[in-house]
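dumping the sequnces here before i forget
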Amino acid sequence: MAPSDWDLVQRVRAGNRDAFRELVERYQARIAALALGMLRNREDALDVVQETFTRAYESLDRFKGDATFYTWVYRIAYNLCLDHQRRDAKRRSVPLEVDDRGEDAALPLPDGPLQDLPFERTRDAEIAERLGAAMRELTPEHRAVILLREVDGLSYAEISAVLDCPKGTVMSRLHYARRRLQERLRGLL
Amino acid sequence: MTCAEAEQLLDSFVDAELPGSMLLEVARHAGSCPACDQAVREMTTLRESVERVVRRQVEGVDLSGVWPAVERRIGRSGTRGVWRHVPRQLPVWGAVAALAAGALLWLRTPQPETVRVTHARPNQAVIERLVSSEGARVGIMKDRKYGTTLIMVSAPGEDTGQ
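..and the predicted 3d for all of it:
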């Protein structure tokens, strides 16, 4: 049976660096999903993932266990994404990928069964493209709520803890963001 | 329940963030209202699409370099933050007092409960429509392990077909 997050945290505090590696590998994909969805730039997202875990390690003694480890780490990642976006507002960032029209395009689909289904693949690519454009139009706060809810499946209370805002704000942001995405994807879903 | 009332609760319904009785109310309404049923389905499709698209993007990212990079960074920064804040020359009386206070706290503080990783799947309401000849029925099942709420709505007066 895999050790719990709390067990691993205790081992790290006792000086076991491998335990921290296990925590990193346990949550890196989820933090990457948040960072990639927020920043839409692979290199920046990877930098945020690395910085998130570095800061988590350095401040692990401040983690009291009253929140779950992953919501605590999410909060670090979210704040780093906001910092990154504030810095980016002053300099033009390189988009994830640029198509002929100069707009962000979806990342190529991974190898798999979908490659044998051209229709599904094309449709998915179109959804990905439209969704990417719609996500960019959202504010970082709305984008974060959508990612934490739809991708990570966090509860309203957990999202409230990560974003440091009331649960009612989470609900109104989620409602607004979903309606905006639905409008942009109308006829495609 | 009216369509307007149901619409207000739609987000909380698909996220299974309503109390059981309210979940049932909305499920009953959606079971008999094609427009609200469609709205639930559209929202469910949207969330599935967002999840699928973002997960595919992450699958395309090579995360194998994350730990080596983190290890380098924490190697450079030395020990964790708390130790860097400890004064280098702690007075002896201060150290003794701190040790005594720490021992007292340690003895009085209950050990934290083990945090279980139960987040294998997102919290969500899964709506399963059943066809039954026994009249309309609505039921809720909560899967504690995965945080999934299963809402079963049976349509009245139709054969099961099984």
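The CA atoms of residues 53 and 157 of chain A lie 23 Å apart.
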